[in-house]
Amino acid sequence: MTSIALFTLTTTDPGDLGPLRTVLADKGCAPEDIVAVIGKTEGNGCVNDFSRGLSAAVWEPRLPAGAVTVFSGGTEGVLSPHVNLFVRDERDHPGFDRGLVAAAGRTRVLQPHEIGREAQLDAVTETVGTLRAELGVSPGDIHLVVVKCPLLTSDKIAEIRSRGEVPVCTDTYESMARSRAASALGVAAALGECDRPRALRALAGAEPVHSARASTSAGAELADCHIMLIAESAAVSNPLRAVHGSMADALDLAAVTALLDRIRAQGGAVRQIFAKAEADPSGTVRGLRHTMSTDSDLHSTRHARAAVGGLLSALKGDGAVYVSGGAEHQGPPGGGSIAIIYELPRPDEDGMP
Questions:
Q1: Which of 46, 167, 190, 266 has the fewest CB atoms below 10 angstroms from its CB?
Q2: What integer pLDDT is reported at residue 92 of this predicted model?
Q3: CA distance 186 to 248
């Protein structure tokens, strides 16, 4: 059981290790305490985003073997490049009857022809199940599952064809969506949001299924899936808590404020927001036409991140918000899953935890 603390620190560039030095030198943490590094980098968030790979290359050699990195490219608009460090917290927090826990792991390496398909879905389901068992929590205790998954490059597509196999698609950008979808449905199956047959039908486009707790993104910098699971547990004591839900569309302020109202009712302070965003596939938002999917200069995911990032940054009060584009099966179409981590006051501050 891993009780955690969360540190959100801005970065000056994709290779900036200043936040690591801050956590180790100023926060009293040891390198082996780091469970996961979840960050936003300033690249384009597409197939050729160099910033994700650079961040992974500089961070991973400095982390313990069991830790994972998830770097999501794209800080359009007011979003600010930053990292979220989830660190083991062994301190005593008297007065709290539960707290936030985390576990991180990786799937097996996926073969190129498995990306976006049933094998990837099953690999994610299995790993999420293993992490849940490690934490000893029920599916209902889990608020967020962050996944970084592989995509298809031109070389991988050529390799698949050289073996006489068929790739899930031949467009590298589309492969990001296919991979995100398989991972999200793997999470949904693992958490009981749907059963495996229904998840497979959804993967084939035959049924509308989504997870309210999955946040998946794809990149060329890895061949397996990096997974971090966040849950609440009565087996630990710390001031962190989480809530989750779904935005119905990019303008769904009400869904977010409902979660924030729950936090305020407990006297809590928002520490971080994790959200998915996508251009509504219908081509409209609340009956009005949008141009996110017809812009030939910028991919729709970049528009969606900027739009949702502006809304959430205004509510949080700063731009260090984790907004990831491409929400296939992560919240309803055109919307996205959302999870908020918050901190309760110490009992001696207001008389209640």
A1: 266
A2: 83
A3: 21
pLDDT in tens, 74-117: 999 999 999 999 999 988 899 999 999 999 999 999 999 999 99
Backbone angles phi, psi at 258, to 5 degrees: -65, -40
- pLDDT tens across 204-220, in order? 999 999 999 999 999 99
Tell me the per-residue pLDDT of 252-306, one tens digit each, with 9 for 90 and over: 999 999 999 999 999 999 999 999 999 999 999 999 999 999 999 999 999 999 9
pTM of the model: 0.96
Residue 1 lies in a domain: no
In this prediction, residue 217 carries a pLDDT of 98
The residue range of the domain holding 337 is 240-350
Secondary structure of residue 337 in the 3-state scheme: strand
Q: Is 220:53 a contact under the CB 8 Å cutoff?
A: yes
Q: What CATH number is given to the structural domain containing 278? A: 3.30.1330.160
DSSP secondary structure letters along 88-108:
E--S--TT-S-EEEEEEEE-P
Q: Active-site residues: which are they?
A: 148, 217
Whether the pLDDT of residue 42 is over 50: the answer is yes
The region, left, alpha or beta by phi > 0 then psi within -120 to 50, assigned to residue 35 is alpha
Which whole-number Å values give the CA distances from 259 to 79, 86, 247, 268, 343, in the listed order? 21, 22, 11, 11, 14
Sheet strands (E) in the chain: 4-10, 34-41, 68-73, 82-88, 99-106, 142-150, 214-219, 226-233, 240-247, 269-277, 284-285, 288-289, 322-325, 336-343
Position 319 in a domain: yes
- Can you tell me the distance from the alpha carbon of 225 to that of 231, in angstroms, rounded to the nearest whole number? 19
Instruction: Please answer whether residues 153 and 294 qualify as being in contact, where contact means their C-beta atoms are separated by less than 8 angstroms.
Output: no
**Is residue 37 in a domain?**
no
Q: Decide if 247 is inside a domain.
A: yes
Q: How far is CA 312 from CA 33, 142, 317, 334, in A?
A: 30, 22, 8, 16
